[in-house]
Write a structure and sequence with these properties.
about 300 residues; Rossmann fold
Length: about 300
């Protein structure tokens, strides 16, 4: 077993422990993996440099590798849809890299928990309770002193992700991470129609009807001046780098960079997990409407697939 393989084995054993006592060990091992991964100038796939400290899957490692290849002029981030912030794309950036951050969640209890945490004072972090809409997003950034160039933006709100990114005008992140709905496939540029009160569980009991396809996000990224560089191995997060600084990275098409998710989060009418996987997931929501970006029209999912 090579050094990276051994480190990953040790690292995964520690990360699997739920106790907060292991946070220091996780961060220290994360630092060791960063040093090993950052030696790689080129990779074939983002999965090669994944590791998890606080992220849901391997996003922490991908982010660290990306920022090692960039000159970050403003070491700050924005993330919304953070829950209680124990599992997020930016917490490792905050604690390991000491970046400044702005985070939002629409659950008051989550934000109170973050603000009341004994470590909240240790970092330059602002947490706000807000329902993010395309109507309020820019004003929220400005109210909190974020505008112009920033290091990273992470979008994960299980719904209007496409419409929110499209509406953002007042910041220019060097890196954008946006959740995509793998169930929508890699052929059609589609998203849910915009509704400022969208709730994935209320919209469809299965929890599968949400967000946008990867082709839709890649089309939007192109219009906003970003290059798509790949997806995480879990098949739910896409990574984009602003094209004025994307030189160190291999660009990808939506078709090339699409990863089909294997996680089974579908629910039945009573809210219980059904563990349905593969294309069966799409059949559950085939009667739902999606907005086709190219056609600029709303269609039933079954009429596309």
């Amino acid at each position: 077993m090579n050094m990276i393989g051994l480190l990953n084995k040790i690292f995964n054993n520690i990360v699997s422990e739920k106790s907060d006592n292991h946070e220091i060990e996780k961060i220290l091992l994360g630092k060791i993996l960063i040093n090993e991964y950052n030696k790689k100038q080129k990779i074939e796939n983002l999965s090669e440099i994944e590791f998890k400290v606080f992220s849901q899957f391997g996003e922490d490692g991908i982010i660290q590798w990306i920022i090692s290849k960039l000159q970050i002029s403003n070491k700050s981030f924005i993330e919304f849809g953070v829950g209680d912030y124990r599992e997020s794309n930016t917490l490792f950036l905050l604690k390991n890299n000491n970046w400044k951050g702005l985070i939002f969640d629409c659950d008051k209890k989550n934000i109170e928990s973050i603000i009341n945490d004994e470590e909240y004072w240790k970092y330059d972090l602002t947490a706000g309770c807000e329902l993010i809409t395309k109507e309020n997003i820019n004003e929220l950034f400005l109210q909190n002193g974020f505008n112009g160039d920033i290091g990273l933006l992470s979008i994960d709100i299980d719904g209007n992700d496409y419409w929110i990114w499209d509406a953002i005008k007042v910041i220019s992140p060097q890196i954008v991470i946006c959740e995509y709905n793998s169930v929508f496939g890699d052929q059609h540029a589609i998203t849910i129609p915009y509704s400022h009160l969208f709730n994935r569980t209320k919209a469809h009991y299965s929890n599968l009807y949400m967000g946008a396809s990867l082709p839709a996000l890649c089309m939007l990224a192109d219009t906003k001046g970003y290059d798509f560089i790949g997806s995480n191995s879990a098949g739910n997060n896409a990574f984009f780098v602003r094209n004025d600084c994307s030189g160190p990275f291999q660009k990808s098409s939506a078709k090339q960079g699409y990863v089909k998710s294997n996680f089974r989060e579908s629910r039945d009418l009573s809210g219980k997990l059904t563990l349905i996987s593969g294309n069966e997931r799409l059949k559950l929501i085939e009667e739902m409407d999606v907005y086709d970006i190219k056609r600029e029209s709303i269609l039933k999912i079954k009429n596309l697939f």
